[in-house]
Amino acid sequence: MGVAINGAIEQGLLFAFLALGVYFTFRILNFPDMTADGSFALGGALAAKLIIGGWNPVTATLAAMVVGAAAGAFTGLLTTKGKINGLLAGILTMNALYSINLRIMEKANLPLLREDTFYTMIQSLHIPGIGVISGEAIIFLVIVLLVKLIMDWFLHTDLGLDIRATGDNSKMIRSFGANTDRTTIIGLALSNAMIAMSGAFIAQYQGFADVGMGIGMIVIGLASVIVGEVLFGSRSIFRASLAVIGGSIVYRLVIAVALRAGFNPSDLKIITALIVIIALTLPNVAKGIWKKSSKAAKGGKLDA
User: Fold this and answer.
1) Per-residue pLDDT tens for 57-75?
2) What is the pTM of this model?
3) Around Cβ 137, how many Cβ atoms within 10 Å?
């Protein structure tokens, strides 16, 4: 069981980059970006191709982030300059990236089992773990927290505040002279850079990149965001981004428990849907019960 928990924590930390990227667009920028499914696979495909070609895993991962940012910027250009609906622009980019990923990989699957990857690099360091948490998970946690802190800092800069204002009220911030087209493009680029980084790390972690590895990633990212917000709260940027990381780990732990309980891997989609449904409805149900109980208590006091 300890191995399963550690594996779930490691995966949760690697998928946390995806969750942070989804949080950036859906919560900060208030943009329904569907590019994530394509940019996640793009990051994995490019990183795998470059590693097989002899690139250093760290450099390959950084390159994956750059092309992921380009994919997000393209979606931003479609919606701001091309005046295409944001949801449709993301879907169009996602579909185009499927063919691009096949071009990059030149086949549907690229194995990395005999290659030096970022995961094998940190394994070779033999960092001691803490309990069921491996040394590799500790390294992943440090990297995730570093990215989280950089994102928190950026969102408090002038440009970051413009992006947040664009998500809150684009018409108002435009009236103050801010270029909302620019903030939208930059926001989508940064988001998809993080998502592509997640794809690159996951490909190296699992030992292969697959053209279909990005299918459903937007739902997984949203599930992590929603679960994190429900469990840990989201009153500030610092707390919300930390909650997203926690939500990603909790989501992976729930999936691990479900698989240990006997569910088939093919059931993961419905399990994800149920997790999101429960996370969305439970707070409302609890709030309704609390209101009814408080009304009943007040009524009882009046009768007395």
Assistant:
1) 999 999 999 999 999 999 9
2) 0.91
3) 25
